[in-house]
Amino acid sequence: MIKEVIIGGILALLVFLGLDGVDIWPIILLLGLGGAVYFSGILNRLGTRTVRKVQVGQVNTSFQDIGGQNMAKNELKEALEFILKPDVISRLGIRPLKGILLTGPPGTGKTLLAKAAAHYTESVFLSASGSEFVEMYAGVGAQRVRQLFQEARTTARKESKSSAIIFIDEIEVMAGHRGSNQSHLEYDQTLNQLLVEMDGMPVHDDDVRILVMAATNRVDLLDQALMRPGRFDRLVRVDLPDREGRLSILQLHTRNKPLAIDADLDTIARETFGFSGAHLESVCNEAAILAMREEAESITTRHLRQAVDKVMLGERMDRRLRLDDIKRVAIHESGHALIGELVSPGSVSSVTIAPRGMALGFVRHAPDDDRLLQTVSELNADIQVLLGGSTAERFILGERSTGAANDFEKAWDIARQMVVSGISLLGVIHEEALSQDLLYQTIRDIITEQQDIVEGLITPESVTRSSQMGTDPWSQADFGDNETAPIG
User: Fold this and answer.
1) If we measure between CA atoms, which residue out of 121, 115, 113 comes closest to residue 66?
2) Where would a tag sit more exposed on the chain, N or C end, judged by fewer CB atoms within 10 A?
């Protein structure tokens, strides 16, 4: 507010002096010079903003603290040998690596691996995010890149270290394909400066060896000039953990928590296929919170299973449904569970009709082993499980509901995957050469065939028999005097 008043007063004074016949051009020139000095100071402060820095003594993360990524850890340790054994590297004539790119889904431990690398090599560790190098002012991002490399050398010399690791998280923000931002060339200037700095890193005869590590989950967005050998020499894939990896992560995150004697982490590892390390850490934390709410002395398998549901679907909603809706949800989820047990015995882990997030009910399946490849029969079984809920609704209640919309969408996606993968009746095809009508009809035929199988598994005879015997449990259910009953 004060700045606006001052600017308005100066403009009013200039207008008054101009009308009074005073030559105001020298004053305007002086004000313009002062403004240029002022804004250059702002740009300088923006360009010299210190990047987040973690001292070596504060990097306490080691490779032993990271579970489920044995392949990535071994590959990373091998790449770090040039820092630990410079004499051997020089004797064999090996060119030291300049950059290592960590790729993989979010939450798999890419940042932890970079910190562990700094701890493993006793290097100075400087971290920054790709968004910190992008500004609306031209040249600021490039200046920050230069400052980051200079700061790495200065800090390493100050701490008497022979190596430094620069870690850039979400590098795709500053290193996307050049020319993709036609209206904002600041992105390209920042990337160009990073390329220059990596090219100018001395390979030998330097008192500080610098290694650039970066993380991204969108490697397809990165400029190819950054990916060539001599810049990012190694690409380390950090994938979602397998069953053994999930078990080691669960053991890692429960080592400081009181587990019950019967707490079965192996079962939880089997039931959490597709979970990342961050998801599993959240499961352990949520299980401890549930135990605290119940004032329990230890964390049981029940707490862990409830935590898995919470991480997958969200917190249990305090939503009151009508009795008819509760009955429909229960029948729908029973259909999923029934078909799941018929096509894969023992695969159903839990069934709930307690609303969580956007779901009114949920059936969680736990395969015996992680499936990286799926056969035709396995994909057909998945479609059958998805169709089981709506089929049970139609046979027992006489009509389907909108609650099966998401099931139909997933079933359609699986059938489309079968066609595109060349394992449908069309055989090997090219998607672009396939007409939309033929694609639609083939997908529809797959789903119709599986629907017929599901209808053969869920028959109305058992429903008719129970009605004639008068054993409908819903007709005898006592929910009190309220028209609606709370779920769960």
Assistant:
1) 113
2) N
Angle, alpha carbons 111-114-115 (nearest 5°): 90
Has residue 478 got a pLDDT over 70? no
Catalytic residue from among 122, 333, 378, 483: 333
Nearest to 267 by CA among 314, 311, 303, 231: 303
CB-based contacts of 33, cutoff 8 Å, min separation 6:
none
Say yes or no to pLDDT of 486 above 70: no
- Told to judge if 333 belongs to the known catalytic residues of this protein, a careful annotator would answer yes
Report whether pLDDT(341) > 80. yes
Side-chain-side CA neighbours of residue 387 (13 Å): 24
CB-CB contact of 125 with 59 (8 Å): yes
* 26-43 core/surface letters (b: 16 or more CB in 10 A; e: else): eeeeeeeeeeeeeeeeee
Per DSSP bridges, beta strands 348-352 and 362-365 are antiparallel
Residues 6+ apart with CB under 8 A from 142: 189, 190, 192, 193
pTM, 2 dp: 0.73
**In Å, how far are 2, 3, 36, 310 from 14, measured between CA atoms?**
19, 17, 19, 66
Strand-strand pairing, 320-322 and 163-169: unpaired
One-letter amino acid of 280: L
Question: What b/e readout covers 130-162, taking b as 16+ CB neighbours within 10 angstroms?
Answer: bebbbbeeeebbbbbbebbbebbeebbeeeebb
Residue 461: other Cβ atoms inside 10 A: 8
Strands (E), 217-360: 234-237, 320-322, 348-352
pLDDT of 320 > 90? The answer is no
73-127 confidence digits (pLDDT tens): 888 888 888 888 878 877 878 777 888 999 999 988 898 999 999 889 888 899 8
Q: What is the DSSP string of 284-321?
A: HHHHHHHHHHTT-SSB-HHHHHHHHHHHHH-SBP--EE
Strand 234-237 and strand 99-103: the pairing is: parallel
For residues 286 and 305, the answer to whether their CB atoms sit within 8 Å is no
